[in-house]
Amino acid sequence: MTGPTKITTKEQVEKFLDSYDDFLFDCDGVLWQGDKLLPYAAETLELLRSRGKRLIFVTNNSTKSRQAYTKKFAKLGISVTAEEIFGSAYSSAIYLSKVVKLPKDKKVFVLGEAGIEEELASEGIQYIGGTDPSLRRDIAPEDYDKIVADPSIGCVLCGLDQHINYLKLSIALINLQVPETIFLATNIDSTYPTNGKLFPGAGTMSAPLILASKRQPISLGKPSQAMMDCIKAKFDFVSSRACMVGDRLDTDMRFGVEGGLGTLFVLTGVNTESDVTAQDAPVAVQNYMTKLGDIYELLQNKE
Predict the structure, then answer these.
(1) Inter-axis angle of helices 66-75 and 114-122, nearest 10
(2) pTM here?
(3) How many CB atoms are closer than 10 A to CB 229?
(4) pLDDT digits over 212-225, tens only?
(5) Catalytic site includes residue 21
């Protein structure tokens, strides 16, 4: 078994680009780190567009809606449309509205930020929790009697919640004790890479509920193939002619491999070159390079 190919020449880039029509990109760690655009990332995207490639931006970050993401792209000098963005919050909303067809009289209890709320609203789904300021407090003695299962709640949805607390977890757990309540997670990432560091990911929000409820959520983010099915249904691409570009083996690369896509790994995020080339690597990556911008830089080589 041969290891992954490190792309370091103009000829390798040309061969790589000729192999695919559609490119799926992770964002943080691939295009930017925090609020800093990575070198030649924007130029590479424009180059791909100029060659007729279709770009799809796939992120597990549920704190921002597609509309909010377009503003972040624009701030960094990259022009994209909301239709090109497929985040885990949107994936969760599509799953609830189109797959399980959550009844109109049911609500979602959200552990998460405004991005989830905006995407649920875009699909006409009612929700409570989330950014509700009345829940951003310590639990009080009288809450223990007041917190009961709400028959109007049909789903508990966990994303990255920067105001997580015992009160929210308690409400979620009580409702998850009702077997009919759907348990979803925007993603189950253990960490959230940003600004060159690792912070607790969305998976750390659902982990206490998994332990306490003895239930496993359906994840609607990478590497879940439930997310891949939603993306394929929307964009209708041929898997063998699509490539997943990412910086994380257990999410991005597994997502691509299990979805039948080609893979390109970049070394500007979570995992290292030794992780990718190790004989016992958790996922067999096809190609890797130092950074996404190498595509642009190598093609400028006049040799």
Answers:
(1) 120
(2) 0.87
(3) 15
(4) 999 999 999 999 99
(5) yes
Distance, in Å, from the CA atom of 158 to the CA atom of 184, rounded to the nearest integer, reads 6
| Burial 34-45, CB ≥16 within 10 A → b, else e | eeebbbbbbbbb
Catalytic one of 18, 21, 145, 252 = 21
CA distances from 294 to 10, 62, 236 (A): 9, 29, 28
Buried-exposed string 231-267: b where 16+ CB fall within 10 A, e elsewhere: bbeeeebeeeebbbbbbbbbbbbbbbbebebbbbbbb
The answer to whether residue 265 scores a pLDDT higher than 70 is yes
pLDDT higher than threshold 90 for residue 198: no
Cα within 13 Å of Cα(135), Cβ side: 23
Tokens of 149: 């299962």
**What's the length of the chain?**
303
Strands 32-33 and 36-37 turn out to be antiparallel
For residue 278, give both structure tokens.
Answer: 């190790």
Distance CA 212, CA 215 (A): 8
Instruction: Give me the helices (H) in 85-132, please.
Output: 88-94, 114-122
CB atoms within 10 A of CB 285: 24
- Dihedral sign, Cα of residue 75, residue 79, residue 80, residue 82: positive
Q: What does the pLDDT read at residue 245?
A: 98
End-to-end CA distance of the chain: 32
What would you report as the CA-atom Rg of the chain, rounded to the nearest whole angstrom?
20
Q: Which residue reads 């609020």 in tokens?
A: 35
